[in-house]
Design a protein that fits this description.
452 residues, alpha+beta, Arc Repressor Mutant, subunit A, 3 domains, four-stranded mixed sheet, two-stranded antiparallel sheet, 7% strand, globular
Length: 452
């Protein structure tokens, strides 16, 4: 029997490790990137890191991060005036380690497992995550107890602690809330593979990729936004964590000026002495000399990769900021009410990158304006049509609705239909159901739409 050849043509996209690292670096906040640089420097002697201790001084007096706010997972359309102004100093309170060790003390455990769990708990970072593989954080004599100890920690409150990263934390939280089977499989696909696509509104393609329907994807994404990606941050820490915006766009002498906050991150360079040393070992004929040359070259290569990633991140952020300054000019000059509808796809086309790159560069980063410090994501919003064809962003329409309700002097609640009619008089097309949705996102109940 003859066997035939089956010829097929297919496309494959393969992403190498260096590109993955670059994509990760784009997504990191200033705090997370600072930590990444610190860890790289600890294992790479060719890196010289110059810390900038004064980087917080300008902003620490006024703005602080609300520690339990999962800003990186929700869409940018739901923030109100309270989330636009970052406020509220973190007071002294129980630390995550204190809380977990207290929980551990109430459990009936094997003494070896308890001791190993204590070691692992003290190693957790401020997010509630392991900074490295758990086995590397304990003594060799405790290694055999690590799997059970990790399982114990991951069953503790708050849900999601004891993970390696935020994705695993979300999966732990989903399982803790009873998700299992096929639903858990699809949710894993949402978290690990399709999150960027869903954020960009590509629900149908994500549903197809995960072999489910759009309703399931929307429901799982809505569920995801009830979780917190960083469960440890609800507890106290040894320091107050301040937001340090990496961009500033302010009006100066009637003209908008954009500046990059170069002090938000430490400066990094390669130690020239190691380049010279590599050249010296290059001529060596001994085995030790060749090994030394290989080691130094590997470290120099890793250092250069990090510098390239930092440069690409800074360049992309600056170019994105320049486009936002142009596209959202009225917002920067006049305030939140003048925020226009703007998609990441539009900005990506101007910057000359893929929209997923804009999504990453906008994640967990902030911009300083004359009207407060805003998440960069807040400057992206879908458009609500208007009679003059200009269009308003959803956030701007929400601010209008807030103003209409606050200015109500009739003594009676304003119905959603009445608010819709008032908006129509202003040339803005917003159906009653849309008004109801926006009012709920603003956390304003219809019963409060009256003068007190």
């Amino acid at each position: 029997m003859k066997q035939g050849l089956d010829l097929t043509l297919r496309q494959e996209l393969r992403i190498n490790a260096q590109l993955l690292q670059t994509m990760e670096t784009l997504s990191l906040s200033a705090d997370e990137l600072r930590e990444k640089i610190k860890k790289e420097a600890e294992t790479n002697p060719t890196l010289i890191v110059h810390e900038k201790a004064a980087s917080y001084d300008r902003f620490a007096k006024e703005y602080t991060r609300r520690a339990d706010r999962p800003e990186s997972l929700g869409d940018s359309d739901g923030d109100d005036e309270h989330s636009n102004w970052i406020e509220g100093m973190i007071g002294e309170k129980e630390s995550l380690q204190q809380h977990l060790l207290g929980e551990l003390g109430c459990m009936d455990l094997d003494e070896n497992v308890r001791r190993t769990a204590e070691t692992l708990i003290t190693a957790l970072d401020r997010n509630g995550f392991f900074p490295a593989e758990p086995e590397s954080l304990v003594k060799p004599s405790e290694a055999e107890y690590v799997p059970e100890a990790v399982n114990v920690i991951q069953r503790m409150e708050p849900e999601g602690v004891g993970a390696r990263d935020w994705r695993e934390s979300l999966m732990l939280q989903a399982e803790a809330r009873g998700m299992k089977g096929d639903e858990l499989r699809i949710f894993r696909g949402v978290v690990y593979d399709e999150l960027d696509s869903i954020r960009l509104g590509r629900i149908e393609s994500s549903a197809k990729a995960l072999r489910t329907d759009t309703g399931e994807i929307e429901a799982l994404f809505a569920f995801l936004k009830t979780l917190t990606p960083f469960p440890g941050r609800k507890y106290g820490s040894e320091y107050d964590e301040y937001i340090v915006p990496e961009l500033s766009i302010r009006k100066e002498d009637g003209v908008l000026r954009m500046r990059m906050n170069r002090d938000a991150l430490p400066s990094v360079e390669i130690d020239q002495a190691y380049r010279d040393l590599a050249e010296e070992y290059k001529a060596s004929r001994t085995e030790d000399g060749k090994k030394a040359e290989k080691f130094i070259k590997e470290k120099l290569g890793a250092a250069q990769n990090l510098l390239n990633q930092l440069e690409m991140r800074a360049t992309t952020l600056e170019r994105t900021g320049a486009v936002l300054m142009e596209k959202q000019k009225d917002f920067f000059l006049k305030g939140p009410l003048y925020l226009k509808g703007l998609t990441m796809q539009e900005v990506a086309a101007e910057v000359g990158v893929h929209e997923a790159t804009i999504s990453r560069i906008a994640a967990a980063k902030y911009i300083d304006t004359d009207f407060g410090i805003y998440p960069i994501r807040a400057l992206f919003s879908s458009t609500v049509s208007s009679d003059d064809g200009s269009g308003y962003s959803r956030n701007a329409v929400k601010e209008m609705i807030r103003g209409i309700i606050a200015g109500n002097t009739s003594g009676k609640p304003l119905s959603d239909q009445k608010i819709s009619d008032i908006l129509a008089e202003r040339g803005i097309k917003a159906a009653r159901r849309t008004v109801s949705k926006y009012r709920h996102e603003l956390d304003i109940d219809s019963s409060f739409s009256r003068t007190k």
